[in-house]
Specification:
The complex is a heterodimer. Chain A has no helices and eleven strands. Chain A is mostly beta strands. In chain A, a hairpin with a 6-residue loop joins strand 4 and strand 5 (45-51). The mean pLDDT of chain A is 92. Chain B has no helices and nine strands. Classes of the chains: A mainly beta, B mainly beta. At the A-B interface, strand 4, strand 5, strand 9 and strand 10 of A face strand 3 and strand 4 of B.
């Protein structure tokens, strides 16, 4: 099946700096990708929908100026956490799928962000 | 979004079958039932999906009730590697790019004992 790859798998950054997370669909063209965030012992929460060639759509309560999403090609979406703070420490996961409900969604392996 | 309800946790012994239930009483006629699982510190992994008929693949079986208001994921012989959080999700047929947008509930934590 298709593979979605995230990089890096873990990152530690200082408070106030920015961190970029990459999500690549390795063998199919993804016009849409999704970014999730997961806090310890909680479920995944959708943050935003990344649309190739257009602006991302953010879920309610997610700051678009803090979590910058760029989907410049059909195989790459990036999430940049700007001016990171300790409360942004979380597990970030991207996914991609074809635009039909009769197919599986593919998930990246996740990125563990720790802000110190 | 259509909602699913799962038990918080279940336990099984290794090499025994496991039946993970899911209720989705508000499912609409065109919603697909998807199951994913998540191992610790990993992204979710697809397990199986179906619409009306029961489905089998190399990982599991999916039994769907006739009224589609519930389903059961069946692991025929649990192994220690099957210990994970299992999510039952309705993939809503809302059109356009919303297909990939999955709403995760709390899932069922499956513990497998050796």
């Amino acid at each position: 099946g298709a593979v979605v790859s995230q990089h890096p798998s873990r990152v530690i950054c200082k408070s106030g700096t920015s961190v970029k997370i990459e999500c690549r669909s390795l063998d199919f063209q993804a016009t849409t990708m999704f970014w999730y965030r997961q806090f310890p012992k909680q479920s995944l929460m959708l943050m935003a929908t990344s649309n190739e060639g257009s602006k991302a759509t953010y879920e309610q309560g997610v700051e678009k100026d803090k979590f910058l999403i760029n989907h410049a090609s059909l195989t790459l979406s990036t999430l940049t956490v700007t001016s990171a703070h300790p409360e942004d420490s979380s597990f970030y996961i991207c996914s991609a799928s074809w635009d039909t409900p009769n197919t599986e969604a593919f998930f990246g392996q996740g990125t563990r962000l720790t802000v110190v | 979004d259509a909602k699913t309800t799962q038990p918080n946790s279940m336990e099984s012994n290794e090499e025994e079958p496991v039946h993970l239930p899911c209720n989705h009483s508000t499912i609409s006629g065109t919603d697909y039932i998807h199951w994913y699982r998540q191992l610790p510190s990993q992204g979710p992994e697809y397990v199986i999906h179906g619409l009306t008929s029961n489905v089998n693949n190399r990982m599991a079986s999916l039994a769907i009730a006739e009224d589609r208001k519930s389903s059961t994921l069946i692991l025929h012989r649990a192994t220690l590697r099957d210990a994970a959080v299992y999510y039952c999700i309705l993939r809503v047929n809302a059109g356009g790019t919303s297909y990939g947008k999955l709403t995760f509930g709390q899932g069922t934590i499956l513990t497998v004992h050796p």
